[in-house]
Amino acid sequence: MNPEAAKALVHFLTESLHPDAIKRKAAENELTKRGSEPGFPVLLLQLLAHQDVPINIRQAGAILFKNLVKSHWSPRDGPSISDADKTQIKAVIVDLMLSVPPIVQKQLAAALELISAADFPARWQGLLPDLVKKFDSKDFKIINGVIATMNSILKRYRHMMKAPDVLLELKYILDILQAPLLQLAQYTSSLIDTTTDPAALQQLFTAVRYILKIFNSLNSIDLPEYFEDHMNDWMTLLRKYLLYTTTLPALIGDTDDDSPPGLLHEVQTAVCENVQLYIEKYEEEFTPFLQTFVKDVWTLLLSLGAQAKYDSLVASSIAFLSSVSTSVHFGLFKDAETLTMLCDKIVLPNMRLREVDVELFEDNPLEYLRRDIEGSDSDTRRRSATELVKGLRKHFEAEVTQVCSAYINTMLQQYAASPAANWQAKDVAIYLVTALAVRSATAQQGTVSVNQLVPINDFFATQVL
């Protein structure tokens, strides 16, 4: 690294943080001008590696590097980072990202994601092998950085269509990653069984969360042969985390109503998302495991409270049951007792407005309406419960209508007895009637087919008008 060039770079980065707007703007303009010069991005990375440079300057440099990559790696017009610089950047960015402090690492990870979006895998075939080699370190600070990067690179495959070029990319990725990923998952699981230190468990469960997200990315387009052959291994691991219980705050978070989801709950959410993917896309192959997972997800659902931190887990769990209800295995829910329990223990509690929902309506009514009307709340409790009713109604319309109608009548009676105290009962009743009544709808025409067993006109006239 050229000492004079590095000194000048530190100066301008320092000035770019100056409280004086004129000095700050001048420094920003100078850095922007130099950003297109050959060798500058490499110099910037070299500077980030020096621990004697103040952390705020390294953070500013990392942000600048990320912005240079965004603007000049594959520009539609304007100057581009030279091929020689690109080669050097690719050679060092992974190791550098794993060695710098978290606030710098975050920016380099974002830059790496931008580079991989443009060049991986065709023009950066060394990336994935280099990342996989890091698994051998057995250091979960390094491993978590690696698999977090893998997740950011591979998540695009969750939304791609099945096409020959995409399948070729996935084959290349799977040949390198599929076996090491399973080995890492099993190794992590074995450590969880023997570890009691909360901080170490937190690192291990962070790894599990990323592993399960990568699992989803690799399985979203098609079922890889390796995953089919090792489905029992994977499902054993998924079930382990679905059933895992602990009281450690490091894994379940705080007990406050407004606390964020715990790490364990995020892992269990990822498990539910993966088994939902399998029942929807690989139903035949997943059949041997289905009944066990239905029982386990149901049990987990009944154990969760109404706190907002469980919302994503509850929604993904209900979504899995909804997918089962519309599959060829709908018979798992055919018993009248089962349908009653689903309505009483899962549907109704998750349709009922909570204090946090009421507060959202009072504080931000537009956001509440956006979620409730426009359908953007597909991962909320209410929407998931509605979809479960619709799924059950597909094969058990008469039975589900009969069960839910009894609850509707009870809630309307509660409201009639004390409207001020029991207005939420009527709200749930209206929501449940909507879920029962609408068979099909389109964005352009609205409802086009209705459940003839629901007296919609009478209900509207007596309860809504």
In short:
The protein is mostly helical and 465 residues long.
Structure description:
The protein is mostly helical and 465 residues long. It has 23 helices and 2 strands. A two-stranded antiparallel sheet has the order 1-2. β1 and β2 form a beta hairpin. α18 crosses α19. The N and C termini lie far apart (77 Å).
What is the count of helical runs? 23
Name the structural class. mainly alpha
* Binned strand content: under 5%
The gyration radius over C-alpha positions equals 27 Å
SSE order: HHHHHHHHHHHHHHHHHHHHHHEEH
Defining traits:
single chain, mainly alpha, globular, 465 residues
Helix-strand layout with pairing:
Elements: H1 3-15, H2 21-35, H3 40-48, H4 55-72, H5 83-99, H6 102-119, H7 127-133, H8 140-154, H9 164-194, H10 198-219, H11 225-229, H12 231-243, H13 249-252, H14 263-281, H15 283-303, H16 311-325, H17 336-351, H18 355-363, H19 365-373, H20 381-395, H21 397-417, H22 423-437, E1 438-442, E2 446-450, H23 456-464
Antiparallel strand pairs: 1-2
Helix pairs in contact: 1-2, 3-4, 3-5, 4-6, 5-6, 5-8, 8-10, 9-10, 10-14, 12-14, 12-15, 14-15, 14-16, 15-16, 16-20, 17-20, 17-21, 18-19, 20-21, 20-22, 21-22
